[in-house]
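tool=predict chain=A
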Amino acid sequence: QDFNKRPKVNEDEIRTMDDVVMPESFKNPFSADGGYRTVKVSSYNPNDFGLYCMSGNVAEMVYDENNKPATKGGSWSSIGQELQIVEGNDRFKGLVKPSVDVGFRPVLTYLGRKHVHSENDKTVNPYGTVQLDDSTFMDEMEVSNNNWSQYVNWQKKVYGLAAKEYKDALPDTTVWINKNDKSLTPYVTHYFAHPAYGEYPVVGVSYAQALSFCKWRTEQLKSLTQFTTQFEKTFPNSSFEYRLPTKKEWERSAIVGHSEKTLKKLASTKYSGQITSNLKRGKESNNMGVAGKLNDNADIVAPVAAFWPNQLGIYNLLGNVAEMTSTKGIAKGGSWTHHEKDVNVEKDFEYSEPTNWLGFRCVFEVKNKDLMINPLNEKK
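tool=predict ok
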């Protein structure tokens, strides 16, 4: 129907769904559906799950029942039986070179299973978190630009570019403007938008925006639990939420320090003197490290998985970006702009608006432990 609505370029020409202009009288076996070859990924009507082009367009890479590379769904050049979803022939099986007929779509799993031994012995963690107690889990890493981009793009797709919801989700990139340090100016354009900074912590977001992200993240996970049976059994749909950590939760997670294994590595010749957090050091408040010690490899912010995780497996609780807590205006942990002598677990950092040194991470909380059918702290 979209194809039929498109205007003709000239009286004797048509524009196909994939924007190929050709004579109206052109005879081509692949053009009857509005596509000369491949079409846009959102073409035609989606199936009941909201998925587009499961049959045709490009054959999609999968693993077969023997865990071998294969394809499903057929491509723009397929006819008849190849286009059947379940029983279709796989003309491209064994193909090792890139092809105009073959593409893929990824699958994101939220199960986070570890060491599944039997049907009754399953440990399920919310994706990307570590367990603090029997009902609370904390993100291993700070919320990244990639994470925030997913949130922004969802608002754009659902509400549109002109919508308040989309505009309210955008980070304030002007936080990088500093009249005393012109070297930061390029980050206004590049820090959030450029893929090179995708795994760096998002900054320039307010307390209210962080709360909205937590709410959105909760809703997204709840919408997916119907496809993850074991997760739904462990965390019934109405019993959990993402939120900002309390000061007590954050301090309890940060005070544990590094594991004995990590401390032994740091004491070895290979890692001796290695910097373990992204903070300013030395008399000149140098962002790049100090003489006689390994550079911290971060002029400003570092990737969310940089440096050594603590004993719980959590990265960058101290340094990189200060992290919002559930108490509005209070952040913890210090940042790349703070000197190491001024940062400790107990210290609070106050803020009133978005800055280039402030980010956050989420806590996943089970609201009603009694609803957990398979408690994570259950021991055999």
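Residues 207-224 form the longest helix (18 residues). The radius of gyration is 26 Å.
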